[in-house]
Specification:
Elements lengths: L6 E7 L5 H10 L3 E4 H9 L3 H11 L12 H9 L2 H24 L5 E5 L14 E6 L2 H10 L4 H9 L4 H7 L2 E4 L4 H16 L10 E2 L4
Parallel strand pairs: 1-3, 1-4, 2-3, 4-5, 5-6
Length: about 210
């Protein structure tokens, strides 16, 4: 646990399942939102220390003419090489956790919703009072990723590198279904937000599958 005065909720799920949509609604309900991918993209990758480490390890082709990291090239390189992926995670994850600590410490008593795609894969459950998994059916997941411009085969490869979605649902304290309309997901988030905001941190109320009544 990071700070006993904060309510910490970890949000995870598979690629294309709707984590960001759910997190945005939690934010509308008063949670402070932290997005692991956004922190990496906007704060860590632009840092000189990280940029130079990537160039030294993966080569000059990983950087654009202005010296910024070409994220898509880095992603292509590391997803084909497990050792390179492990190296990149070792580079980024300690810095990410340190940044989280700074943000959380600056808002004692606040409720946080933290998007972490690899929450269970990296054993981060102990950071949170509750964990939430957003799930959907496989065809909807692939369709959403294709709409983002990710070819279906690449999407399948990346999904296969994560913990199976069914297992994430088993491990999570709460599960949100994103198989229907955006309003359906919104109603589930509202119901769960109401329950969590009334719960004393560090006293989990048990596993709950949330569906609107």
């Amino acid at each position: 646990m990071v700070n006993n005065s904060n309510l910490m909720v970890g949000l995870t799920g598979g690629m294309g399942c709707g984590k960001s949509t759910a997190a945005a609604r939690f934010a509308e309900r008063g949670f402070r939102r932290l997005d692991a991918d956004q922190v990496v993209r906007d704060e860590l990758l632009p840092s000189r220390e990280v940029t130079e480490a990537i160039r030294a390890k993966l080569g000059d082709a990983m950087l654009a003419a202005d010296g910024s990291v070409r994220r898509h090239r880095v992603a292509e390189a590391v997803f084909k090489d497990p050792a390179a992926l492990a190296w990149l995670e070792e580079l980024l994850h300690p810095r990410l956790l340190a940044r989280w600590r700074e943000v959380i410490a600056a808002s004692p008593g606040a409720a946080f919703i933290v998007e972490v795609p690899l929450l269970f894969e990296k054993g981060l459950e102990n950071w949170f009072d509750f964990t939430v998994c957003v799930t959907t059916d496989s065809q909807s997941q692939l369709r959403r990723l294709e709409l983002r411009g990710l070819p279906r085969e690449q999407a399948r490869e990346r999904i296969a590198r994560q913990l199976p979605l069914a297992r994430k649902c088993e491990l999570a304290d709460h599960v949100l279904l994103n198989d229907g309309t955006s309003e359906f997901l919104r109603e589930q988030v509202d119901a769960l937000a109401d329950r969590l905001l009334k719960t004393t941190p560090n006293r989990p109320a048990g596993r709950l599958h949330v569906s609107p009544s």
